[in-house]
Protein 1
Amino acid sequence: MITPPGRLIVKFRALILFAWAIAAVVSWPRAARVQEGLRVEGQRLRPSDSQLATDLIVQAFPQPVGDFFAITVSGPVPIDSLRTRRVIESISEAAGQLPYITRVVSYLTVRDSTLVSDDRLVTFVLATVEPRDGFSPTNIVAEFRDAIHSTVAQVPGSDDYEVLVTGRPALDYDVRTVSKDDARSGERKALPFSAMVLVLAFGALVAAVLPLVVGVLAIVCSLAVIELISGIYPTSVFVLTIVSMVGLAVGIDYSLLIVTRFREELNRGRGRQDAAIRSVVTAGRAVVTSGLTVAVGFASLLVTPITETRSVGMGGLVVVTVAVLLSVTALPAALSYMGRLVDVPRALARKLAWYHAPTSWERWARWLVYHPWRAIAAGGIAVALITWPLAQIKIGLPRSGWFPSNTESSDGVETLQRMGAGGTLQPVRIVVRVPEGHRVVGSRYIRSLMRLSDSVRADPRVAQVRSVVDIQPGMSALGYTMFYGNIEAARSRSPEFFSAYLSSDNRSTLIDVILSDTTSFTSSMDVVRRLRTLHSDIAGLDSAEVLIGGFAAASVDLQDDLLQQFPLVIGLVLVSTVVMLAVAFRSVLVPLKAVLMNCFSVLGAFGVTVLVFQQGVGSGLFGLDGPTEAVYVVVPVLVFAVVFGLSMDYGVFLLARIKEAFDRSGRNDQATIEGLTATASVITSAAAIMVIVFGVFSFSRVLAAQMMGFGLAVAVVLDATLIRMVLAPAIMHIAGRWNWWPGVKKIPVPVGGDARTSGEARLEP
């Protein structure tokens, strides 16, 4: 294992503490504004079908309908009344005056029945945002909302109207805002509960405060680094959640291990400086090894093809590095000054001494030594039952709950869905481009476009199709051929429509597929897959390029790419972890066993996640209205990468203590008992803190964050109980001396030695 230089850390403790104090002061203002540079919308790092479609729409069409705001208006009187007309006209005028709005459409201007509800009390206005390089519509949501709401407030009688701004930019903005608020709220909720566990674990208030300080400092310093990174590399807003969760969890866990070992050394009669040095050499070595295993998981995410997962990888690497550095430098430096002050108040420690009493843990450890096969059988059955739901996992967009609840944009979506127009926000977009020298609305392609439109419309999941061959319902192929015989005359009749649906060179056309409101996000991905094979069966389109874009199509491409990269992520994590642990513990079997145990934790976490979220068992506890029917593809990738490293924490803590005892005694059974007894309360406390931190985020308003927090919490529970307290020590006992092969050699058992339980000889490094 890598051993931090304990003597140097204690020697230069004043300088180290001063440097970290300066870092905290400098980091605080940067951490406070980190969300300003983060992205909500994902960015693909390699081309995809959906991205090519989006790029072609922006480049080929004079006024493409790309990003837009949908302003819903719900009033007490019908849209035909003068009062409602004034509200709608004021909204249209205010939006049209904004420099980034290119087009405003309302029922009053186009008389489209899809823009108004059946009872004519609800309508919505569409405001198209001008596409520009380097410009994100998400950044102008607050300004746009202020302009709309302030204008409506000046209209007499507008108090009776509910006006909501939604649309993709508004939804993205609210996701960013909610992610930031949930991260801060999660920290505030987790800290007091974590403090209670720390007080119980240490029996001293001073000792309990130190890990909390380290956890908070790890978050602040890491967010400052992320703020710098976001200025030069696109970084997703999801990094806020991961830094808050992981920073608080590992910051507290690592410092818990250091402080616990420091107090042990003080109780053995060492002075405060010697105790600090010894803590760095022993517990600090385990912290560094553990931190490296966690870092491996996060580093594996850097090979994924999207900014969301890469951002989580970068954020995890940063926060784990900072937490490790704080735990092995600043914390020992502070402890070397504090000495016995860390035990204040001592009366509390005496009252809570029962928590650390090794008797019960030692009895359990000895039972495992005498009954290892029973423990393995019981543990194996439990793992199999927990993992079983994983066989029914479905990867995809969830049925519901995707948008954060209780936000203006999600309330606007609900309003649109009530009037049957929810599908207008996320249409599936088909772009058809014909070879140079041809017209897409020429006689050669008109019939093909009509067949394509009819085939799409025949799908019961499709509510409406908008295209150049649907502008006049009922018109024949011959009629459209004649209509587009004079293309300029046709454009002049509906200039706004053709600017959005027919390219300037007449080679490209756009078909918008509006899905019915009964079609879930999960089903919309199936629609995209059907459309991508449908056009190949349409005669005449074999010479044309057909691309499918839109939110659902981008989600399909994201899923396919991530699932393609997932085996590489798994391979990198497994191989790197095995090699690292083999070097650290000079063993072949120990790292292989540790990796296998971690796989059990991950698979069990996936199984429970499928049971609760996809199948809906107990989903109401997390604010969901039923099963999601699918698990978002990012969640398994992130949970695997994060959990594999974090759950290895307890494995490293346990193995390091067993190895320390084994190097001293040469008896594997005795070392296993001693290691389990010495670390059980620490692992239990550390796991409880992680479960609290991750569990808080299970109640986030962002579904992806909920799934990830829940998966991490379940994995930690499984790992700290079933894996580390049952299966791992039982297997360690059965393996005997082979645990440490080839790092030790066999020598005779000393006189009086006891190798009865396993028949092993004494081993010496």
Protein 2
Amino acid sequence: MARLYEFQSKKLLEDAGIRVPVGDVAASPDDAFRIAEKIGKPVILKIQVWVTGRAGIGGIQFANTPDEAKLKAQQMLGIKVKNFVVEKVLVEEKLSIKSEYFVGLVIDDAQKTPVLIFSSVGGTGIEEIARTHPESVSQIPVDVVRGLKDYQARNLVQKTGISGKLLISLPAVLVKLYDVARKSDARSAEINPLVLTEDNRLYAADCHMAVDDYAVYRHPELGIDVAREFDRPPMPLEKIAYHVEEKDYRGTFYFLQMAEEISREDKFIGFNGAGGGGSMMSMDAVLNKGFKLANYCDTSGNPSASKVYRAAKIILSQPNIKGYFASGSGVASQEQYHSARGLVKAFHEEDLDIPAVIRLGGNFEEEAIMILADYLQDIPAQVEGYGRDDSPEFCANRMEELIIENESTSHKVKPMGDPVVPEGAYAFETFTGKIFFDHSRCANCESHGCVSSCKPDVLKLNEGKPVLSISEEEAKKGKCTECLACEIFCRFHEQDAITIHLPIPGLKEYRNKIRGVD
């Protein structure tokens, strides 16, 4: 699930008509001063992080004046809380509280339905409330077709002992919360505490929501960088990798950074798995050799060669790794030559300087291993390809031996340039990139192997020059599968007349930043 910060969740509530405290989010002490000054009365400051128990770690503070709010914000911003560095503080009016309640909505996977929970006691976790005050807690499943009706919310509240005018105002909040959660595709939504103030007004004093990963694309207004459940903000490479995945449905590309900093002294390697179970066994094998994982990456589900290429480029954007280790399931159904071609293109562009051990067990593994052996002979690094009969332990041992032979040299991240293509080149767009043909070089081609190697048959010869055999619109929609076969054949067997550009937005800038280049 993709989590929202408190200030994001409260904005959704406010838009739906649920009252929230007056306030705003501050990114600097001066921001906090201005917000507190505008509010014009005592305020509460809360760090914006995805952790519970903020009060116990000093993450909730009170201030009576704008100057005090500025001082408190200065103390809170920049501190490290678990895996977070606090970048924002929510500054809100301090409420005069008479009563606290709990209301939450969660998807119950067993019942396959949303479940609404209400408690006449709030302020702590619902598990603790249910243990100490079981009579105060009530819940009901919600019919997703009919939605939550007013009378259902009223009955739910009444079961906890609530009576009087609150039987009108409290159920209305519950119905609105359900509507917010439904509209936002939330897997969970919690207001705790929902407070009644001394002037008898209900406020959502705190709120947290988590949106279904698979629905994030429908909600650009939420500003979610990565639709995955992290216990920290996503790192820059994770954002770059996610934006590759969200725009390409072909197979899986999951990338997670395991280390914030990679020292030259440690035995970090870049890890590229394929399939959960096989990847776990492969990780165990390298960890048992004393290696550390700079990242976890999964390219499975029959990904395109272009997706594996991008994965390799992102993995190799991590400085100081000692090797590149790829190993997943030994019986993968995906066609392994796609992965091999993606790695060949990436390793050549990178002029790979660290050893790589690639275990490509599965369909067409022999062809995949041959592609690695034939086309990676003239790069500085030693690259070895293996199949299903070679165990993860054997491959991990080879990784260790090759790194020792390479004198434990640390990987240097290379700059990324734009493709160099001749003026007037014949070109067409693919699903995620663009292919250029230098027809002046094609005149000297003897085999026209780019056409015969194109299994999807999207190329044909026109007066001895390769051109599209389908419409440009069809190629762009995915008829050209970006298998990279034409470029690799032309580069190693003919005129090097084909350039396939597969952009990775943000990666060039990221590499320049870590290399200290403006």
Protein 3
Amino acid sequence: MDLKTMTFLVVGATFALYIGIAIWARAHTTSDFYVAGKGIHPVANGMATAADWMSAASFISMAGLIAFFGYGGSVFLMGWTGGYVLLAMLLAPYLRKFGKFTVPEFIGERYYSRTARVVAVICLIVASVTYVIGQMKGIGVAFGRFLEVKYEIGLLIGMGIVFIYAVMGGMKGITYTQIAQYCVLIFAYTIPAIFISLNLTGHALPQIGLGSTMADGSGTYLLDKLDQVVTDLGFHEYTTKERLSKVNMFAYTLSLMIGTAGLPHVIIRFFTVPKVADARKSAGWALVFITILYTTAPAVAAMARLNLMETIQPSATGENLVYAERPTWFKNWEKTGLLKFEDKNGDGKIQYVKGDANEMVKVDRDIMVLANPEIAKLPNWIIALVAAGGLAAALSTAAGLLLAIASSISHDLMKGIFVPNISEKGELLASRIAMGGAIGLAGYLGYNPPDFAAGTVALAFGLAASSIFPALMMGIFSKRINKHAAVWGMLTGLSITLLYVFQHKGIMFIKETAFLGDMKANWFLGIEPNAFGAVGAVVNFVVAFVISRVTPPPPEHIQHLVEDIRVPGGASSASGAGH
């Protein structure tokens, strides 16, 4: 069976499964729509959380970034994984104990302020909309190549699928759909990795293959071979090149960590379990499910980079590949515009070397995971499975983000502030309308994606890090932080991060030239804009601390509320949001 037919069958089957689950798990109440009725088992919620968290950036872009940046790309592995541990230990159980539907609702009641709630909504929407653009890019890339349709058509199809199961099922439908999507994406990621590891090193486990010798009998370790290949072509050594500087790598890692812990679409997953203890169990199970992909990603990255370079510029023969004789996979990806060749010297041969002036092959980093099975000449069913996995990753996270956006509009703004007497039926309808509007906005922004998926996502994490995370941490662990401190801290952290991004880029998203250092002359301590969220978070904390010392402390009942949240067992008190 040819690849296109196989892909249509596999992807079509997964889409039918998602829609079927949505019909079965249709939300009938606002509790179903927002938090799945708080009845999800910890293991199931852990799997759904893993799918919600492992976006197109994790599935498609992360290995591509590590493949091209080498050691410097490890910031994504360390930041995202460390951030999840931070979320599981310091935030999730306490927020679940508070017992509300959304992050802005917690902030509004903890800081006894409607203004704080509105500011939290603004921060949530800015971060989530930025994040969802990356998922739209992932959907378009996967559809464009494997279903051989235009990027715009792929986006429309993806939007339609999300609309059906997210609008119909809400959190309940999204949760069970994400469980199915996790199964699809994890098989799609690990199966080709196993085959490729066997081909290159003789080891079935990619994690072991990464540190093993090549299967060709040379005795050369895979990473040593990759270092040799890339340095021979003028690139930096793969295993040692840091990302700009140690300070920048630290800031980038920290920004991704606290950004992960501040992303509302991940946090609300812990509101769906029956008990506080289940929130911790969910976090543990999610980390297990996440680990499977995240320990495989470095191997996928290294093996994909080696396969790519050895295929288009074989070191064994010492001769460059003739463009007219390029392999089928090269031709297929050329059609998408994500792989380009320009014969600058007119010799008709592909030369893959470092430097814009001499660069004849341009490879979009987002294609590395999706193209890897084709480059390695794996069977069509594996290639089709990878396409379904990439779509599952993008769709699962997109649905979670869109629900967070819709909930903030319908529950926090309408129910919480503007129309407090709205009926449950009316709120449910408003939620579905808000979800539809969010999907439309995401699709509109996805038509002209400003950059590759993980670059867009990295900025979203920075925005969450500089605005939402400090407000949550101080709200849980400090009785002294009041509403004035929280509002000004969030606004200052978000503003300074956005200002830095626009000032030092002129555009919002990272480009390759930024990584090469062309734009870093005026960066603060050499920190690139996508890593500035860590600095924004520090500013947020400092501003909040200073203001809390020159303004009155929170009311007594709010201070007791903070104590109740942190005490194991029992139920926390509640407070009405003030003006």
